[in-house]
Amino acid sequence: MALMNKLDGYLNAYQMESIDELSTLVAQPSVSAHQQGLMECSKIIVEMLKKRSFEVQIFSNDVAPIIVAERKGKSDKTLLFYNHYDVQPAEPLDLWLSPPFEPIIRDGKLFGRGSSDNKGNITNRLFALDAFLTEEGELPCNIKFLLEGEEEVSSKHLEEFVSEHADLIQADACIVEFGGVDHTDIPVEYLGLRGICYVQLDVETANQDVHSGLGGSIFPNAAWRLVWALNLLKDQDEHICIPGFYEKVRKPSQRDRELMRKLPETANDYKTRYEIKIFLKGLTGGVDLRLAEVFEPTCTICGITSGYQGPGLKTVLPAKASAKIDFRLVPDQKPEDVLNQLRDYLDVNGFNDVTITYLGGEAPARTDPDDTFIQLVVDSATEVYGKPMQIMPMTGGSGPNYIVQQALQIPIATLGVGYPEGNAHAPNENIRLNDYIKAARHLVRVLDAFGRV
Amino acid sequence: MALMNKLDGYLNAYQMESIDELSTLVAQPSVSAHQQGLMECSKIIVEMLKKRSFEVQIFSNDVAPIIVAERKGKSDKTLLFYNHYDVQPAEPLDLWLSPPFEPIIRDGKLFGRGSSDNKGNITNRLFALDAFLTEEGELPCNIKFLLEGEEEVSSKHLEEFVSEHADLIQADACIVEFGGVDHTDIPVEYLGLRGICYVQLDVETANQDVHSGLGGSIFPNAAWRLVWALNLLKDQDEHICIPGFYEKVRKPSQRDRELMRKLPETANDYKTRYEIKIFLKGLTGGVDLRLAEVFEPTCTICGITSGYQGPGLKTVLPAKASAKIDFRLVPDQKPEDVLNQLRDYLDVNGFNDVTITYLGGEAPARTDPDDTFIQLVVDSATEVYGKPMQIMPMTGGSGPNYIVQQALQIPIATLGVGYPEGNAHAPNENIRLNDYIKAARHLVRVLDAFGRV
Predict the structure, then answer these.
(1) Which chain A positions have a beta carbon within 8 Å of B316's beta carbon?
(2) Which of A70, A403, A439, B223 has the fewest beta carbons under 10 Å from its own?
(3) Are A415 and A179 in contact (CB under 8 A)?
(4) Do A224 and B214 touch (CB under 8 A)?
(5) Residues A105 and A161: beta-carbon distance below 8 Å
(6) Inter-chain contact A301–B283, Cβ cutoff 8 Å?
């Protein structure tokens, strides 16, 4: 306890220094979708690691370097942190109350793109390590970092890198990029990630937009072609109609249902926060809503664009139309299967004029809730939050967990600075400073316990 | 013939002065959809009319003034020109080879937004009048102008104005704003306009976009709601599914078919110009294609917007989606009927969450092909083009003809500077200088004959 008091004292005293470090990171735009500022951001990260005497290796590719860093600690055990320094695009810019890349503290929160996802977790890891280095002069265990700059665009280079450099990043356990508390302020241990298959559908019916008075009854209309093609993918009962799509879906187990049942009710919170009138499929709440949220695959239209979208009216027949579609996958679906099934389905239905561009994909992955490392992380929360972490056997998001899991065969935990109103991927992304210090207090306990196992 | 020689001589000598006048008009943006520059443009028009000693009356409203101008001529007959000084939005700007509001001559063509639709016709009318005023010192008949600045947004104030001021604009015949040659360089007399009912559909499912990993399987998605609602409107066989939609459709008569049969083939020209692979409904060309083009009502998606539309991928579930829909109507459909039918249909199918905003509408209108004024206009073309005008009993576009026709009960002819590659409503709008002088030569013959009837 004396050690924990010292570490907590450090964290209390130096929080704003760490928030300053985070602000530096947020102020550097690093939007992987636009290939903006990735190199610059990676350099800031490397400097931060070197400052802590990490041995840093930089692996360049044509998009954003992958960074591997290592520093030895007291015990022989090795913990791997996987994080990413890229962020989602900040658009729509007009909905931000302050500029996305000008971090600012308001009402006890730090606002800025990446403050939560995922730069806040990077500096928070470093903050926890700083506590040990300052108070103890050494780390409690070996620490490795694996950092990439393409997580928000489906980690294109990570799989090959990890399979080629498994030795370099080999560890006993891994903590991945995200995590945080739910709306009851209790942290959640997320033990699975859905996969993703993200595609863009494009239709082109002419070499230019045509006056709608001319072509309306005789020319193909790209927007109509797209609408009809999209309509084929999912019916109004939310059933995804692509043949074979559900074939490899593994239903949640009894243990999954049991864990999901213990989680708090989310229905009212969602309804209030997003002003949603009804849930899909007649769901009203309870364990069924929570199971549907994470154990079912999805087909989400993320965006559609075609023709005239300005104010008032313009009478054109659009020559081009496109949609971005995000399929979330559950074990044991695979993105490459979905891609093939989609192509076949469109072709069979006469939509071979709809081109499919694969923008990225990841397979789903899960970690055993009864693994000892997971129990350690879950229990270490009690001292900070008053309760152990809640265990969520699966979560709705996606990430490269399966890459790490496949190559290293180690348990993967989550722990981080997030909270439900953090607006990850949306305007006004933010973290609460209170969550920031709690996450660091939790992490120092995890590191201490892990080093002593 | 002596008179025509003099008038042609004038037109040959002063074409570039008239093109300069047109360039001044084009250089003044007047985008009614954006309420941009309308007042400024109306002032330029008024000056142009006053310069020709027209008595000008300006009727203000909250958008764009309606201008009525009159000058007496030799005969008692009165010809009314209906034109509009507003233009379509210039977007997408990146497809213009030169800025839309910086008129420029390239390859014998004047490029700029409004050069064809409809500013070119305004200055062309004035150019023909100038020939008479210069060579004869007077106009061959009374001339009235009715000019508005809201044609591209469905002439919202025109109907009320015309019904209240019918005396002021009363005339024996009218030439409306558009016209020109077809792809064989023979001018076309367009004797009908389809109506239009232009609506925007909007869906809002939440107060913000949501991370697609979170809400994909349980939150309503505005883009999906919109796709399903749109899909209800028209099936893949191009049948518009709104109950009652076809009820008042009058089929083309035998005389219509006969006139349509005389018109030149358009199929190959369309295929080449727009790089269209197939026509709708199995049409391949001939009179059937031409009949379908203008005698059938349409439901055209002019634009769709929802969610993320930038480069790469962004995993969001859109809270908002909207589409712009343009129904072209044929006699005796009415826009208000379609609006009601659409609302009922969406409601009956469970889409009362889709709001409909009526952006504008006009009823269809036709003029008798065997009217004596029409024959005069048609025959006057022979001396200029080597052939009389081709008669098209109906055309695909829309306009306020029915307003003039309803109030004044006079024949309405078209005559103008357009040609098929003029890109009206599209980037790189242009006219050919050759067409410009021919249209003026045609018009002076019409005026002369009309004054002598």
Answers:
(1) 302-303, 425-426
(2) A70
(3) yes
(4) no
(5) no
(6) no
Q: Summarize pLDDT for A17-31 with one digit per residue, the tens.
A: 999 999 999 999 999
The reply to whether residue A314 touches residue B89, judged by beta carbons under 8 angstroms, is yes
Work out the average pLDDT over A303-320.
Answer: 94
Q: Per-residue DSSP letters for A68-85?
A: EEEE--SSS-EEEEEEE-
- What pLDDT is stored for residue B396 in this prediction? 87
pLDDT single digits (tens) B63-108 = 999 999 999 999 999 999 999 999 999 998 999 999 999 999 999 9
CB A132 within 8 A of CB A67: no
CA A97/CA A117 separation, integer angstroms: 18
B97 within some domain: yes
Indicate if B300 and B387 belong to the same structural domain.
no
Q: In what helix (H) or strand (E) does residue A175 lie, and over which residues does it extend?
A: strand A173-176
Closest-CA distance of chain A to residue B274, Å: 5
The answer to whether residues A202 and A346 belong to one domain is yes
The C-alpha angle B318, B324, B325, rounded to 5 degrees, equals: 130
User: Least CA distance to B87: which residue of chain A?
Assistant: A314
Domain count, chain B: 2
Using CA atoms, how far apart are residues A149 and A144, in angstroms rounded to an integer?
17
Using CA atoms, how far apart are residues B85 and B64, in angstroms rounded to an integer? 9
Q: Which of A217, A230, A319 sits opposite B296 (nearest CB)?
A: A217
- Indicate if B202 and B323 belong to the same structural domain: yes
Question: Residue A323's closest CA among B308, B226, B282, B421?
Answer: B308
| pLDDT value at A96 more than 90 | yes
CA A104 to chain centre: 23
* Contact (CB<8Å) B212/A297: no
DSSP string, A422-442: G-TTSTT-EEEHHHHHHHHHH
Encoded amino acid at A347, one letter: D
Please give the pLDDT value at position B1: 65
What tokens does B410 get? 């006079």
Domain check: are B213 and B164 in the same one? no
Q: How many Å apart are CA A116 and CA A180, to the nearest integer?
A: 10
Residue owning tokens 């049409």: B283
| A214 and A343 assigned to the same domain | yes
Q: Which residue of B has its CA nearest to A357?
A: B312
Share of chain A above pLDDT 70, in %: 100
* B408: in domain: yes
pTM score of the predicted model: 0.79
Spatial contact of B146 and B68, defined as CB atoms under 8 Å apart: yes
| Mean pLDDT taken over chain B | 95
With an 8 Å Cβ cutoff, are A308 and B89 in contact?
Answer: yes
Please, what's the b/e burial string for B140-172 (b: 16 or more CB within 10 A of its CB; e: otherwise)? bbbbbbbbbbbbbbbbbbbbebbeebeeebebb
Structure tokens at B235: 């099936």
CATH number for the domain that contains residue A327: 3.30.70.360
Chain B partners of A227 at a C-beta cutoff of 8 Å? 227, 230-231, 301, 304
**pLDDT at residue B133, rounded to an integer:** 98
CB B66, CB B59: distance < 8 Å: yes
Flag whether A372 is in a domain.
Answer: yes
Interface test with B, best of A302, A309, A328, A339 (most B CBs within 10 A): A302
State how far Cα B308 lies from the chain centre: 33
**B302/A324 Cβ within 8 A:** no
Lowest mean pLDDT among A67-81, B133-147, B294-308, B360-374: B360-374
Distance from CA of B438 to the nearest CA of A (A): 24
Rounded mean pLDDT, B101-125: 98
pLDDT of residue A211: 86
Q: Cis omega before residue B347 (within 30°)? A: no
Q: Quick one: tokens of B302? A: 């002019």
